[in-house]
Amino acid sequence: MVVFFLELVLLTYFSYFVVYNLVLSIAGLFYKSPQLHSQVSGFKKFAVFIPAYKEDGVILETAKKAFNQSYPKEFYDVVVIGDSLQPETMETLRSMPLTFIPVSFEKSTKVKALNTAMAAYKGNPDYAVILDADNVMDPDFLTILNNLHIQGKRAVQGRRAAKNKSNSLSFLDGLSEEINNHMLGKGGTALGLSSALKGSGMSFEFNTLRELLGVMVSVGGFDRELELMLIRQGTKVYYADSAIVYDEKVEKRAVFENQRKRWISSQYFYLRKYFVTGIQKLFRGDLTFFNSAVLRNIQLPRLINLGLLSGIAVVSLFISAYLTSPWTWPALFAVAMISTLMAIPREYFTYQLLISLFTLPAIFVKMTFLLFKAKGANKTFIHTPHQVASVRK
């Protein structure tokens, strides 16, 4: 009886995980890149906000490259928010043709930095773009956003692509990002749901963003809560695969572990916070909110799911006499792998992918242990340091 009950619980969870990801992966294949109008009715004004907490190593290069846009320069401002930067870095930023807003907090968070900057910023933009301190916008990024906003898209998440693949960890980090782009971005948008926000490479109506951030006190994972607040007011996030921002991927194990710990903690923090509301919304017919608040967050990280599922599939072959459906597990694992492979861009099927796969068992073990260390990580700001990296063309 105990074995039967345990099998039933595991089968229910992993069936949900496999079906959910399969549906999104297939839907991603039907995603259509946004149709851009050859002629637009004008140029909207953008403010590009770049929070930089102890990012002296990358922020100057990021700020310079932020002006490499095909969009008319008179229609966008670059706003760097400097928190705990070195005096020489701040002096250089003040000499550049951008708006520099220094901030200082006893406990720094991205939400605090953005709220302070929006209050201090003297411009009157139509839309606000949020980048990370290491992000480099593709030259057509703002042009594409302008086109989409004029078409009525109120919130847009661009594609975050890796700008470095120097080792197996950064390669796999970039691969994970692209799988999320396909499933949660392309798949979600194709199904009429809200694309997942990623914390950077995203654009919103300025006044709407200022209003929502003004009531937020998020420490980690502010993008998760922001997405839910947008959905509540009737705004779905649109994923634009052609609007590209190059994002630096982590290359060091310690940085990777801290980053993932923060992500896991924020995921389950907002699951607890919005679980009941998500269920209520489902019964009122709001599948979009339910998906973003519950279905997406109730899962373990993908790598852990795949690792556990592969282990169960192997074990099930040896204890088949005690299971009601032993061959179900290998079948579930096969479907999970197929849906994952469908989400991987062709450019990642290289020799480096084969080499990187050998590091997955160690990463799986680390990720599993992080589940037990993530408690409380969302209450403390965990900084992910970056270093200068060239943009991959």
Percentage of helical residues?
Answer: 40-55%
Number of domains: 2
Described by strand count, sense and barrel closure, the largest sheet is:
8 strands, mixed
Mean pLDDT: 91
The assigned structural class equals alpha/beta
Radius of gyration: 21 Å
What proportion strand?
5-15%
Gross CATH architecture of the largest domain: Alpha-Beta Complex
Query: Which stretches are poorly predicted, pLDDT < 50 over at least 5 residues?
Result: none
Number of strands: 8
Q: Strand-and-helix sequence, N→C?
A: HEHEHEHEEHEHEHHEHHHHHH
CATH H level of the largest domain: which superfamily?
Spore Coat Polysaccharide Biosynthesis Protein SpsA, Chain A
The quaternary organization reads as single chain
DSSP helical segment count: 14
For the record, give the distance between the C-alpha atoms at the N and C termini, rounded to a whole number: 57 Å
CATH class of the largest domain: Alpha Beta
> Strand order of the main beta sheet, please?
3-2-1-4-7-6-8-5
Task: Write up this protein.
The protein is 50% helix and 12% strand. It has 393 residues and is α/β, with parallel strands linked by helices. The protein has two domains: 2-30 and 266-378, no CATH class; 46-263, Spore Coat Polysaccharide Biosynthesis Protein SpsA, Chain A (Alpha-Beta Complex), CATH 3.90.550. Strands 3-2-1-4-7-6-8-5 form an eight-stranded mixed β-sheet, with helices on both faces. Helix 2 links the parallel strand 1 (46-53) and strand 2. Helix 8 packs antiparallel against helix 10 and helix 9 runs antiparallel to helix 10 (287-295). The longest helix has 31 residues, at 253-283. The chain starts with a helix and ends in a 23-residue tail after the last helix.
